[in-house]
Recover the amino acids of this structure.
């Protein structure tokens, strides 16, 4: 079964850091680009970051650039998001999503169930 | 960075046809993908590329594009199609970025 399982969310104070993980199974992880997409409570989807199959191409939304870092470990079939200098507006459900291709594109065909990040003092 | 604009809400009578649109400069260069999201669930890809449906997506869902506008058409809307629909595309500003539209709440009457 193709599956993405996120972990690492929780309650964190503003200015602190958090690292999200996404464990992939059921497909050849290192053939595909991967993404993080977030959704604030009651709001729409916001693309956060994407990474190509070999980590050679990486992109970030303006809202997180310089604070968040995406990475992957193909040997461990895992995707990560290091989130630093967290702000209240980063509060959201964070989804891990698989791209249909090896490079960053717009077609995300597999999604996890998300991990909630709450930034509050 | 690019922006994609969607109507916040659209309604359709059961069994009728509805078109959901997405506008943005990036759509002059790239196709849009479309996602369906029901309450409490993760999004599901329903259309990608020129007009491609992933396995398991009913053929009543179709996509099209003209100029700076992409459209998702549901022909013969069913009650189970009531959901939020989001478009996205690659960002025409480059730098390996993607942008989502604000979403459209579809109500099936």
């Amino acid at each position: 079964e193709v599956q993405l399982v996120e972990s690492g969310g929780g309650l964190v104070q503003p200015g602190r850091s958090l690292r999200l993980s996404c464990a992939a199974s059921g497909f050849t992880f290192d053939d595909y680009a991967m993404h993080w997409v977030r959704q604030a409570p009651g709001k729409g989807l916001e693309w956060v970051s994407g990474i190509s199959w070999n980590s050679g191409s990486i992109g970030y939304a303006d809202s997180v650039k310089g604070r968040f870092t995406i990475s992957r470990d193909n040997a461990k079939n895992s995707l990560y998001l290091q989130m630093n200098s967290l702000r209240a507006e980063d509060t959201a459900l964070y989804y891990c999503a698989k791209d249909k291709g090896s490079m960053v594109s717009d077609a995300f065909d597999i999604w996890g169930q998300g991990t909630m990040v709450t930034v509050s003092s | 960075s690019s922006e994609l604009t969607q109507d916040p809400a659209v309604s359709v009578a059961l069994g009728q046809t509805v078109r959901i649109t997405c506008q943005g400069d990036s759509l002059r260069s790239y196709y849009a993908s479309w996602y369906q999201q029901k309450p409490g669930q993760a999004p599901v890809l329903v259309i990608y590329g020129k007009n491609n449906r992933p396995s398991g997506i009913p053929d009543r869902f179709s996509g099209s594009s003209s100029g700076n506008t992409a459209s998702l058409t549901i022909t013969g809307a069913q009650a189970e199609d009531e959901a939020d629909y989001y478009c996205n595309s690659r960002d025409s500003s480059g730098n390996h970025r993607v942008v989502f539209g604000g979403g459209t709440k579809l109500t099936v009457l």
